[in-house]
Design goal:
By secondary structure, the chain is α/β, with parallel strands linked by helices. It has six helices and seven strands, in the order H-E-E-H-E-H-E-H-E-H-E-H-E. Strands 4-3-5-6-7 form a five-stranded parallel beta sheet, sandwiched between helices. It has a two-stranded parallel sheet with strand order 1-2.
């Protein structure tokens, strides 16, 4: 955005979804974001569960521990407050990037009584998370953005993909 402003040229962010790329501090009149924002994604998934599906009420947030992961989780929490106030957040954790062992988190999620896991994780974390959850017999739905890779979905099979709720551009 700074470079676009300096040279008065158009800058297009086609894949980055973090809201802070276009916030008051980072806004530029020559910069555009062509994808959904983290808040739109989080709120959209909350809307789906609260206004359309209206079944599951206990949610656990598990996201990567950096700006994007925290922003998408905040969007989901805002959406739950607005669209599904009777929902309950039964847990919230943030993990380091490129994690290979999700068992401690999954054990905690299982004990929480969660009915849905919300995650903004991207591959390889999304793949490791999904595969390990299914290997541990945890077949909870995932509300997600990036659990769409064909190789990952093939690895867990049709049964392992049941309950995946994806929002995407």
């Amino acid at each position: 955005n700074e470079t676009a402003n300096k040279y008065k040229v158009i800058s297009m962010s086609a894949a980055s979804v973090a809201d802070d790329l276009q916030d008051a501090t980072n806004f530029g009149r020559y910069s555009f974001m062509a994808s959904c924002s983290t808040e739109q994604i989080g709120r959209g998934l909350a809307y789906y569960y609260g206004q359309i599906k209206k079944k599951e009420k206990k949610f656990y947030i598990l996201c990567q521990d950096y700006g994007f992961g925290r922003e998408i989780a905040n969007g989901f929490k805002k959406g739950l407050k607005e669209y599904y106030p009777e929902a309950k957040l039964v847990g919230e954790d943030y993990h380091k990037l490129f994690l290979t062992d999700f068992a401690p988190y999954l054990t905690k999620i299982q004990a929480s009584g969660a009915e849905v896991i919300f995650t903004g994780d991207w591959i390889p974390d999304a793949e490791n998370l999904l595969k390990q959850s299914r290997q541990m017999g945890i077949n909870l739905p995932f509300a997600n953005l990036f659990m769409v890779d064909a190789t990952m979905l093939n690895a867990v099979g049709v049964e392992g993909t049941k309950g995946l709720v994806n929002i995407n551009m």
